Amino acid sequence: MEKWNRRRPLCMGISIAVILFAGCLGSGFIRENMYTPGIYEGSGRGFRGLIHVQVQVSAAGIDDIEILGHEESSFPGAAAMAELLEAVLETGFTDLDAVSGATFSSRGFLDAVEDALEKAMAP
Question: What domains sit in the chain, N to C, each tagged with a CATH number?
Answer without folding.
Answer: 38-120 (3.90.1010.10)
